[in-house]
Amino acid sequence: MFSFRPVRVTTRYARLFPRTKVPFALSNTQTALSDVLIINKIHPQIDRPRLLSLTSKVPAEQTTPFSTKLRNFISGSFGIIAGLFLFEYYYDSRASIHKYVIMPILRTVVDPERSHNLAVWVAKWRLTPKDKIPDDEKLSVKVFRKKITNPV
Q1: Which InterPro entries does the entry link to (predicted)?
Q2: Which of 23, 93, 150, 151 can bridge 129 by disulfide, Cβ–Cβ 3.0-4.6 Å?
Q3: pLDDT tens digits for range 89-103
């Protein structure tokens, strides 16, 4: 039926582990590991991925039409522009998304302790919104001969 035998394999970690072997590989089935390439003389039916190739395996009549490429380009460009707009909108501290979307979701989904821990983590990685308007002079305070623009 099936014969079990050690099979020499090459992986993406071949430089670190040059003698990697699969101890019991079925000789008549394909391997379930996606990052393992089995030597062609043992399993010739497995097609090796082509990393650098200047030719395509797709026939010319099966290529994508120009309208599909144009639609993909327009939708991709729109997605990038919308993502940049949302990124800029999120980092504005006066945006209403914080008051009407993010905070109600956090209050509903997360308990107060975890919400606080999340806020500390977000502040640690500087993902908090920034106030783009400079502070008023009435808020400034001098402490030990050093001027602080906002004591809060």
Answers
A1: Aldolase_TIM
A2: 93
A3: 988 888 888 889 988
Residue with the two structure tokens 């003698």: 19
Q: Which two tokens stand for residue 99?
A: 């008051």
Q: With CA atoms as reference, report the closest residue to 44 among 58, 27, 57.
A: 27
Q: What is the model's pLDDT at position 31?
A: 45
| Percent of the chain that is helix, strand, coil (3-state, to 5) | 40, 15, 45
Q: What pLDDT sits at residue 63?
A: 73
Where is 24: in which H helix or E strand?
strand 21-26
Read off the tokens for 89.
Answer: 């909108």
Quick check: helix, strand or coil at residue 32? coil
Specify whether the CB–CB gap between 39 and 6 falls below 8 A. no
Is the C-alpha dihedral spanning 130, 132, 134, 135 positive or negative?
A: negative
